[in-house]
Amino acid sequence: xxxxxxxxxxxxxxxxxxxxxxxxxxxxxxxxxxxxxxxxxxxxxxxxxxxxxxxxxxxxxxxxxxxxxxxxxxxxxxxxxxxxxxxxxxxxxxxxxxxxxxxxxxxxxxxxxxxxxxxxxxxxxxxxxxxxxxxxxxxxxxxxxxxxxxxxxxxxxxxxxxxxxxxxxxxxxxxxxxxxxxxxxxxxxxxxxxxxxxxxxxxxxxxxxxxxxxxxxxxxxxxxxxxxxxxxxxxxxxxxxxxxxxxxxxxxxxxxxxxxxxxxxxxxxxxxxxxxxxxxxxxxxxxxxxxxxxxxxxxxxxxxxxxxxxxxxxxxxxxxxxxxxxxxxxxxxxx
Length: 335
Ligand code: ACO
Description:
335 residues; alpha/beta; 2 domains; binds acetyl coenzyme *A; Peroxisomal Thiolase, Chain A, domain 1; four-stranded mixed β-sheet
């Protein structure tokens, strides 16, 4: 059996910075409310005049990851693309990336696991490498949230949290035993599916009916979030899935060099940090600058932590996520 490892990382965020002050001009909110509840100061929104889309941002992140990996794009055997905000209802962004990067007719899979999507995508890549079926896999997370948020006071409890961006990794075979992805751990609990969801448009909620049935309120094609229930479940599941991963590898919390949590909300990350008694330099947060970028948040944060020299060879790195589904997941890496 082979072991997989991250060979190259990349990220892309749009230039357009939207501050809390900017939002307070278009809805009833304030910098104070947003910072206190979420830690977010600003986020990026696609400039509507640019050509950026979920797939295009994913392509830009992927190009950087491919270049840094030293892997020839023609040697990519599989594309795994995680997003909740695809360009099209179908087909998925994976095939768009394949076309944009002129990659040969390898398979392309789209993953629909929202905030946990990137860890799910990495896990899929890890399994294909382990079995020996594929050697090099491009794993992308990208989100265009700003295209689908309710940017009015009605939608403020959700729309202030989310931002746009993309991250990517090339996952390949590890040459050194014990180095790379050690294990991945995935969970879901569908009974909470509608507690953090975008219900329509869908085959059950088609646009003309939605508008007829909901002329003003409760429009199901904007995301809904039961924030307090999400918070309560997130802190429990984050902790569980981090411990599950550490225990699987006979590691203690003290062995953890860097935790990259999905950037859901700074308060959730701080809760976990306190619970595990981690120092500031053992947890990477950039939600202050980017907001919550869902499937892109972990690869963006991982790329930045690596670029800033905060991850060194031999470090134990833990990726952990919780989100819509509910789904939650972790990956334990030895860098
Ligand atoms: N600006 C100002 N006021 C607001 C805003 C806003 N953006 N949004 C909501 N409010 C108001 C509400 O209307 C409410 O007013 P009321 O008391 O007059 O009714 C008041 O603020 C409190 O609203 P709550 O929803 O109770 O606020 P809460 O303290 O629960 O904070 C939050 C909301 C931040 C979403 C919180 O529940 C939370 O942290 N949840 C975790 C969920 C999360 O982090 N999700 C991230 C995305 S999902 C994921 O990645 C896992």
